[in-house]
């Protein structure tokens, strides 16, 4: 692997409160952000500018997810509702009103028309994306289900809970597949590697666990950050992944041997976040990494192997 270079491309400013979620649009240069504001914001990465308020909200936004192969953005809020908004027309396509507590994560499948919601009420709900009718709902934990990951082959779906547990389910019928090695504190991030070899899990205990994604046995555990690991995101093509943390830093790692390649933080000389990094996304427009934070900023990073 060559040398990794990271440069700041710009800052997306405009939020008046902490930003908790970010998602890519249908068009490569578009991203959406949401947080403790009154609206989901659309940004243009060509010009690094605000475009519009996509959709107004009454409650904090904790999750944004573009439903696979559609222009529909699912917006999970503190009141437990999920608004499904058409990103071209800004019209409300559906309102999913099952949960009574905050929705913290949303995922969908490529191979079947279903979207999955995870809530603070300890349950998960499955919705048909053609009719937006409720298909299934089941209890996963006594407390919050914080994060979801779907394996690249869409055989497995994994949930991380406030109790530090990681629950494995069969994605075909949502039958319980077992409990995986977990954390001593709440699980806050999950990610399968794109090649399907590994499942990475991060927690409030500041640990990152590497599991074999075939046997789901533990491969390694290490401490990547000083505090909670809020995000784990693999680059779509390069053999690297990024983590974001409550310790205000972003770290870039080798996906091949899990070596630390670069630390992006104010303390390391970057014009970077001053508060918790809450979420990350790799954007396809220029293969840039975008981070969002409690400091009300979204920052755009050029990450290159040279």
From TrEMBL:
InterPro entries membership: WD40/YVTN_repeat-like_dom_sf, WD40_PAC1, WD40_repeat_CS, WD40_repeat_dom_sf, WD40_rpt
Coiled-coil segments: none
Keywords from the named record: Repeat, WD repeat
CDD domains cross-referenced by the UniProt entry: WD40 (cd00200)
Record keyword Repeat present: yes
Superkingdom of this protein's organism: Bacteria
Protein name: WD domain-containing protein, G-beta repeat-containing protein
Origin species: Parapedobacter composti
PROSITE patterns recorded: WD_REPEATS_1, WD_REPEATS_2, WD_REPEATS_REGION
Entry keyword Repeat: yes
One Pfam assignment: WD40
SUPFAM superfamilies, A to Z: WD40 repeat-like
WD repeats: 12-47, 96-137, 180-221, 222-263, 270-306
């Amino acid at each position: 692997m060559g040398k990794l270079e990271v440069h700041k491309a710009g800052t997306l400013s405009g939020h008046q409160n902490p930003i908790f979620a970010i998602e890519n649009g249908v068009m490569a240069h578009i991203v959406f952000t949401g947080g403790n504001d009154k609206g989901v914001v659309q940004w243009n990465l060509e010009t690094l500018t605000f475009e519009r308020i996509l959709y107004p909200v009454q409650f904090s936004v904790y999750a944004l997810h573009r439903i696979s192969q559609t222009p529909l953005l699912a917006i999970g809020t503190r009141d437990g509702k999920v608004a499904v908004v058409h990103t071209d027309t800004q019209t409300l396509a559906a309102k999913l009103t099952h949960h009574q507590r905050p929705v913290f994560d949303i995922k969908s499948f490529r191979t079947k028309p279903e979207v999955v919601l995870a809530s603070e009420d300890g349950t998960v709900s499955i919705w048909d994306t053609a009719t937006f009718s409720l298909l299934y709902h089941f209890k996963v934990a006594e407390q919050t289900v914080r994060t979801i990951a779907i394996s690249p082959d869409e055989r497995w779906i994994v949930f991380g809970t406030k109790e530090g547990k990681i629950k494995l389910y069969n994605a075909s019928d949502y039958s319980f597949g077992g409990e995986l090695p977990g954390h001593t504190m709440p699980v806050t991030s999950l990610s399968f590697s794109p090649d399907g070899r590994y499942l990475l899990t991060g927690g409030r205990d500041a640990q990152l666990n590497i599991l074999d994604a075939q046997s789901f046995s533990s491969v390694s555990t290490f401490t990547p950050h000083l505090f909670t690991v809020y995000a784990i995101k693999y680059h779509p093509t390069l053999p690297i992944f990024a983590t974001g943390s409550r310790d205000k830093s972003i770290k870039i790692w080798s996906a091949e041997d899990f070596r630390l390649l670069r630390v992006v933080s104010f303390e390391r000389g970057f014009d970077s976040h001053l508060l918790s990094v809450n979420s990350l996304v790799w954007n396809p427009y220029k293969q840039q990494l975008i981070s969002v934070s409690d400091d009300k900023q979204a920052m755009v990073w050029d990450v290159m192997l040279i």
